[in-house]
Amino acid sequence: MNSIRYRILAVAIATALIFVTSTAMADDLPSASELAEMEHEEPEAEASEDDAEDAEAAEDGDVAAEDEDAEADDDGDADAEDDEQRAVSETTLRDPISPVMSNSGSLGFHGISSALSPGPMLFQVGMIAEATGGSDILRHNDSHRVLAANVLVNASFHEFFAAHFGLQARNSLNTFGQPQSMLAQGDMTFGLTGRHPVSDGIWLGADLSLYLPAGFDSVGMAMGGTSVRPQLMASFDWDKMMGAQPDRYLPIITHLNIGYRVDNSERMIPEGMELNRIERHAYGISAYNMVEFGVGAEFPLPHVTPYLGWELGVPVSGADGVCDSDRALRCVSEVGGASYPQRMSVGAKAEPLQNLGVHFGFDMGLTSAHAEGLPATLPYNFNFGASWQIDPAGRQVQLEETEVEVEVEVEAPRGVLFGQISDQETGEPVTGARITYVDHSLSSQLSDDTTGVFESYGFAPAAEPEDEESEVEPVEIALELSHPAYETKQVSWTVLEEGTEEAEFLMEPLPREAVVRGSVAAQAPEEGVEADEADEADEEPQDLSLAGARVIIVSDDGTVYETETDGSGNFEQEIIAGPASVSAVADGYLTVGQFIEPEPESTANVSLTLRDFDGEWLAEVSDVQIGLNESVHFESGTGVLLDRSDELLDHVAALILSNADIGRIEIQAHTDDAGDEGELLSLSEEQASAVRDALVQRGLSPDRLDTEGMGQARPLVPNTSSRNRSLNRRIEFHLVD
User: Please, where in the chain does CATH 3.30.1330.60 lie?
Assistant: First the structure.
């Protein structure tokens, strides 16, 4: 644990140093205006000499005139040179170094790939060397060394397309290895990259790479162990995104990578052979597929580019038998995220000679625990690389000055309507009313959600008459005002002059009110003194009215009404007509509800009976979902709920009904992988719908409940045991808003 803390501290310090250094160097770079001032400034001593020369020249007018003509010519030449020097200086600030390659051959650095294009018909050839060593890495008291070399080629045949190739040789030495030196040579990588700009400074791309390992007993290819990794990439050049201003340079480029590696290296193992941890690391064999994430940042300064990267692999879909009980290490699902391959990269790249790119970096492993089936992540690794860029076109940067004439059109005078929409009966503002411009293809507007006012688009007033005898024709704008609770209204506005006009519009409300009337009672006790007395009287126990119970009504439009029961347990509340959930909340009782759909000008009668509750909740609400402490049970292979799930669903419904701020909820049903994929998807959809119906019966509005059958697509843990499969068969409640 301490070693992980030290690594995280070292990464934080390195990140801070890179950021401070790059920022300081960028701040020291002169801006365009500063360069201009520097070129035209002259030392004070020279100014004094010029004053003396001017005094002497004043004695001879002819000589002075000739000197002025000569100086004018010299100044003209000097100004031209200054302009050219300034232009070159401004361009130098953004002159990038030659791109280098990542460990797989794509453009980038270490394990981070870049979506930026170097341009058409550009080629890179290079080599990356890796070295690491230490003790107590794979086994206690071991001594471990790794040396590796990668020969890489990248070819950008087109601005948007490229291909890359890599060939690796690696030697691992461990004192507990049999043999101690394990050589893997001939591992190859092939890849194709596509990329495209979506806006200034933003590039999106995709990469498809094949990994062909060499066999155990020869340098020939082990085709059965071929792995494939599709990857999505995004790169952001912040300087270009911010407009590449001449007086400001923002030296930051960020990269995002996400890929999925289908790893078949486990198939290379000869039948009957079981790898130990040293062999698995030496040959790079993984028993899991991997979801790979990468985040990187470059700081492109004129002569050097520091960079920082972070990579994470999430193992999924383990090979059969990888979690057998007789294995030496624990399974990934048991160890958790501490075993995930994870590392941080810090380094820099430069171009000491034109077209020659070099880079040096340091990888720091952040994985803190070992797990069966995963190659070890080394605590550190040094990288050194060099690449040569080949440009058949022999590009040269040319600076051109272009004069552009811009015609500015002066906008004609406009008239604007400042309207107030009010309720015809009460005079209160009508908020959220829609204003539609009938004869114009303009977007609708909404009145303010507090004051009910709106400001129209600008329209040209009546045109000036062609002559003094012609009459002015006013411009009339037709408006339509609409609101779900009001009659739609047609109005018009005559634009007579430039400026703002004010007007009030009254809307007639629709009869949409409804009344909810009901009672709340506590369920009669099934045992006890009161029940015994009722039996003696030959009467069934009567429910007890609850006074002061809180009644919550939530309409489908999101409106919440709250009231309380009177001394007899009765309540009455006026609401906007439409679907709604009615629930009763009281201390010491489990909340229950009822779903209603009252029509306008009608009364909905509700009767709610609560039962005692002082036990432990089987569900709990968080910011994003409702967590369950038990599982929802179905008849095997069907979407039929078992009675043993009733209490759990009662608790889920009670939590939702008593929390009026919970909006829409998505019910997700998940299965294990035992069965046909299509049938499992259909089964999960049936189970999600069954849970939704059960909650509707408990008083929730169906419009607040969405369902999603996920099938086997999102397991919590690998389906490698009966216990894991039972964990993957689950119902989840996600809060949508």
Answer: 619-735
> Rounded to the nearest 5 degrees, what angle is found at the Cα of 329, between the Cα atoms of 323 and 335?
80
Number of other CB atoms surrounding residue 260 within 10 Å: 16
Do 76 and 194 contact (CB within 8 A), yes or no?
A: no
Helices (H), 555-664: 646-658
Provide the residue type at 370 as one letter: H
Q: 280, 283, 347, 284: which is closest to 310 by C-alpha? A: 347
C-alpha 131/C-alpha 512 separation (Å) is 77
Domain 513-612 listed as CATH 2.60.40.10: yes
CATH number for 619-735 (one of 3.30.160.270, 3.30.70.920, 3.30.70.250, 3.30.1330.60): it is 3.30.1330.60
Q: Return phi, psi of residue 252, to 5°.
A: -140, 130
Q: Evaluate whether the domain defined by 415-507 bears CATH number 2.60.40.1120.
A: yes
Tell me which residue has tokens 């009567």. Answer: 542
Pairing, β 253-261 against β 289-298: antiparallel
Which residues neighbour 490 within 8 Å (Cβ) at sequence distance 6 or greater?
438, 478, 479, 480, 481
Q: Is omega for the bond preceding 306 within 30 degrees of 0, making it cis?
A: no
Cα 460 from Cα 467, distance rounded (Å): 19
Identity of the amino acid at 66: E
CATH 2.60.40.1120 segments of the chain: 415-507
Give the Å distances, CA to CA, from 335 to 284, 309, 332, 363, 650.
Answer: 20, 25, 5, 23, 35
CA distances in angstroms from 362 to 306, 339, 606, listed in the order given: 12, 21, 70
Residue with tokens 């890359």: 164
Average pLDDT by stretches of 10, the chain with 737 residues? 49 51 48 45 43 46 46 49 45 65 86 88 88 79 84 89 90 79 82 92 92 70 84 92 80 93 83 75 86 93 88 88 75 86 91 86 88 85 88 58 66 81 92 92 90 90 61 80 90 82 90 88 68 51 84 90 93 91 93 92 92 90 92 93 94 92 92 92 96 95 93 92 91 90
> The whole model's pTM is what?
0.46
Q: Across the beta sheet with 730-735, what order do the strands follow?
A: 619-621, 625-628, 730-735, 665-670, 705-711
Rounded Cα distance between 386 and 355, Å, is 11
Do 11 and 346 meet the contact criterion of CB atoms below 8 Å apart? yes
Burial 544-560 (b: 16+ CB within 10 A, else e): ebbeebbbbbbbeeeee
The string of DSSP letters for 542-565 reads PPEE-TT-EEEEEETTS-EEEEE-
Smallest CA-to-CA distance from 71 within 88, 59, 93, 54 is with 54
Residue range(s) occupied by CATH 2.60.40.10 in the chain: 513-612
SS3 251: coil
Extended strands (E) in 299-371:
304-316, 342-353, 356-365
By CB neighbour count within 10 A (0-12 exposed, 13-18 middle, 19+ buried), where does 20 fall?
A: exposed
Contact by Cβ (8 Å): 472, 465: yes
Distance separating alpha carbons of residues 661 and 737, to the nearest angstrom? 9
Detail the DSSP E strand segments found in 587-649. Answer: 589-590, 592-596, 603-612, 619-621, 625-628
Q: What is the DSSP string of 386-455?
A: EEEEE-TT-------------PPPPPPP-EEEEEEEEETTT--B-TT-EEEETTS----EE--TTT-EEE
Cα separation, 663 vs 706, in Å, equals 11
Helix, strand, or coil here: 214? strand
What are the start-end ranges of the E strands in 238-288?
Answer: 253-261
